[in-house]
Design goal:
114 residues; mainly alpha
Amino acid sequence: MGMIQEFKQFALRGNVVDMAVGVIIGGAFGKIVASLVGDVIMPVIGVLTGGVDFKDLALTIKAATEAAPAVMLRYGAFLSAVLDFLIIAFSIFMAIKVANKVTRSQIASTSAPK
């Protein structure tokens, strides 16, 4: 079997295509969640905390000089990334929970005596 034929067989296998679709959808979903956190949730949290913009929260480790920019520890951006992760993880958890419930109900309906 030639390498091209073998690659074609691998690339067109069902689970590889499913994984590719999942990666593409996951990337788009990540952008949506990042926008939700950055453009909707964080401004509300900023208002609730007295107008703090989390993206600007940082600790200066070394002040800027003429030769080098300041060295900053940008913990606000980190907090936003953690919130992104928590929302994505919770969304995936809920989707898997629903999928498991549907699968269990399908198994129960097919194995129930008629």
